Automatic annotation (TrEMBL):
Pfam families: Tetraspanin. SUPFAM superfamilies: Tetraspanin. This is Tetraspanin. Keywords: Cell junction, Cell membrane, Cytoplasm, Disulfide bond, Glycoprotein, Membrane, Transmembrane, Transmembrane helix. It is found in: Cell junction, Adherens junction; Cell membrane; Cytoplasm; Membrane. The chain crosses the membrane at residues 30-52, 72-94, 101-124, 246-267. Its main location: other. GO terms for biological process: protein localization to plasma membrane; protein maturation; protein-containing complex assembly. Belongs to the tetraspanin (TM4SF) family. GO terms for cellular component: adherens junction; cytoplasm; plasma membrane; pore complex. The keyword Zinc-finger does not apply. It is a multi-pass membrane protein. It comes from Panagrolaimus superbus. One of its GO terms (molecular function) is enzyme binding.
């Protein structure tokens, strides 16, 4: 039976043997994006599960303006974006669909452009970024008790980095629970800091954490306070880490950018092959 021009290798892989589409490029794009598809899907599921576990739909709407302070919501957004990129790349490559390949290239291009803008701003407007970062991180302290995921993130950061507050322990005065004026409300945490600021937050037998180790500690004198909690803020610790590991951070950013650029190139090359194959079919 005579084949029509539309009965091509896309649907009959063994037919003809004359194709403009490179199998190497096709399955490289497909295999590369399977990883992003799976990772994005898992991140999306974990983020959604965490959101519905801790909040109702009404409180979700109130948090959208400060989504960057909600680890679960941020994970959901990143997971959804990664899932869309991986899905469009997989379907576009496997089914030789130029629409999905165009979506894949566009999303990767926008992501690469955003990363370039952030890197340029980091060098050109360093002072402005540092001011904005301090403002945004202050909100983390203010909302410490309002979000269990954010609370766990801050506690992990202070324990692992051996720091307290954003710039100093007195930053915890911005939180209504740790503010010194909360003593009028008979709050045990007034004038204190979270347990994660303590140098050793375990009890005497070193088994259970002592969550009261930071109570009233900011009302002590400096020598006494320095023996109980960390006095250095977490932002200076982060800046110090970035300065010490600038080469490694820059190398990672460069490698990620190259991978994204190659992904765009492969997708565009595959699109060109598909269009060339279609042109050959139409001539037949």
């Amino acid at each position: 039976m005579k084949r029509t021009p539309f009965q091509t290798s896309e649907y009959y892989p063994g037919a003809g043997g004359d194709t403009e589409i490179s199998c190497c490029v096709k399955y490289t794009v497909f295999g590369f994006n399977v990883i992003f598809w799976v990772i994005g899907f898992l991140m999306l599921l974990i983020g959604l599960w965490a959101q519905f576990e801790k909040n109702n739909p009404y409180s979700q709407l109130n948090r959208l303006s400060k989504f960057y302070l909600d680890p679960a919501l941020l994970l959901t957004i990143i997971g959804a974006f990664t899932f869309i990129i991986g899905f469009s790349g997989c379907v576009g490559a496997l089914r030789e669909n130029t629409s999905f390949l165009a979506l894949y290239s566009t999303l990767l291009g926008l992501l690469l452009l955003a990363e370039m803008i952030i890197v340029v701003l980091a060098f050109v407007s360093k002072d402005w970024i540092e001011t904005e970062l301090k403002t945004r991180l202050d909100d983390m302290v203010i909302l410490y008790r309002d979000d269990p995921d954010l609370q766990s993130l801050i506690d992990w950061m202070q324990v692992d980095w051996k720091c307290c507050g954003i710039n100093r322990p007195d930053d915890w005065d911005m939180n209504i629970y740790f503010n010194k004026s909360a003593a009028n409300l008979k709050s045990e945490e007034a004038g204190g800091v979270p347990f994660s600021c303590c140098i050793d937050y375990h009890d005497v037998n070193k088994q259970l954490p002592n969550y009261a180790c930071g109570h009233n500690v900011r009302q002590m004198k400096l020598p006494q306070m320095s023996a109980i909690i960390y006095l250095e803020g977490c932002l200076p610790k982060l800046q110090q880490w970035l300065n010490n590991n600038f080469v490694y951070v820059g190398t990672c950013i460069f490698v990620v950018a190259i991978i994204q650029f190659l992904g765009i190139c492969f997708a565009q090359d595959l699109k060109s092959d598909i269009f060339a194959q279609r042109a050959k079919w139409s001539r037949r």
